[in-house]
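[Solved] Which block belongs to which protein?

Original post:
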Amino acid sequence: MRLIVARIGLAVACTALAAFLLFPLYYAVVTSLKSGSDLFRVSYWPRDVELTSYLRIWSEQNFALNILNSIIVAVCVVLISLALSVTAAFALSRVNFAGRKTLLFAILAISMFPQVAVLSGLFEVIRMLGLYNNLGSLVLSYMIFTLPFTVWVLTTFMRDLPVELEEAAIMDNLGPFAIIRHIFLPLMAPAMAATGLLAFIAAWNEFLFALTFTLSNEQRTVPVAIALITGASEYELPWGNIMAASVIVTVPLIVLVLVFQRRMVAGLTAGAVKG
């Protein structure tokens, strides 16, 4: 009897938590399907389904280019972060050198700094490199919060892999990069999928750096583009357009999470347990 009650309580708690987490997205979808004065009425189901807001997003703004910019930046951030993190994880977990633990904690400590604290210094670096109002500035700046996380997770994952695999590869005259490519990469697929997906989400949703380092609409990513959405006139509030754009940019993240959810859970669990 206690087991049945516990299962019912768990089901109720999970249902309540899911409803709490999914309600904002649901209400955004409902609001995006309204138009006119219906936008100001609180209702949990649209009386008339209107696609006006979605049509305006594509016709009144260059929203497709903003989505493309976000895809380019997020994909580049993930690829560069994983490439650097795998090699760094190999050095931090397999190579004995003085200050290895100190370096690892220093890398993790970088992620503790708020974005505002490094904004002015990073702006000077980007201006000096000639990357202002360029997608390269976003790729460079996003490394600040993606690299520490990916390096830490992949290091803890690689540290617990059997040493015998590496020793056998060395006996076969494989170099460090060959060992990483043929031995570690296949074994680290779950961890890399998890860290890569989280890095993609972080880059996709980032707002402060994107707002600071881009000026023209041709270089803006979707978070900034959504924040700068305006109505057709100064008296028209663009809530429907904002909700429609928010729903559009959320769909790719939901699809990615559903596709990689098994690898993501496996990678994060392995990293947490082995750390």
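(Second protein starts here: sequence line, then its structure tokens.)
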Amino acid sequence: MKRTISGKVEEIQFDSDVTFRILFAFNLQFSQYEKFYDGQLNWGKAISTLSGRTQKESKIKSDKEGYQLTLDGVTVPINKRIDYSVSQIYFTEPRDGQTVFSQQFGQFMPFKKVGDHKYLMSSPDGDNYYSYVNGICVNVRVERDFANFDFVMQPESLLAVETKADSLNIGSND
């Protein structure tokens, strides 16, 4: 995961690769890139694959009326301003009831507070539970029909978050 801020431009790149076994080995990969200008989503793309087969693919671009989202080859307009998206939830703790835009699903999804600095976001694929320390996401519990798994911040990065270090090199392991 990489976040770059330069003036009014924020760029976030997120890549994950998870392998799990249920009789057979499966590999789940997800890659997302989003670019924001002055706090608003400007452009993005995402792709998820399961064992090499594309599951979802999306691209979003702002225009005069809002956005054009192409999701699995179908283009639809999004007429609501997007200033909080899935890529940003790793760097900014949500509020109870706050909605986040997912270009993978083409919709806004609400966060529900389920504990101290812990939130639930339900998607069409299943539930994700997010845990935060000092405003930074340190753990994501992903619950799906086929498997449950955790994305956990690496210990050295967690130490930096816990001590509010200025420079964070955020990573995950499964």
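Accepted answer:
You had them paired correctly. Confirming on the second one: Residues 165-174 have pLDDT under 50 and may be disordered.
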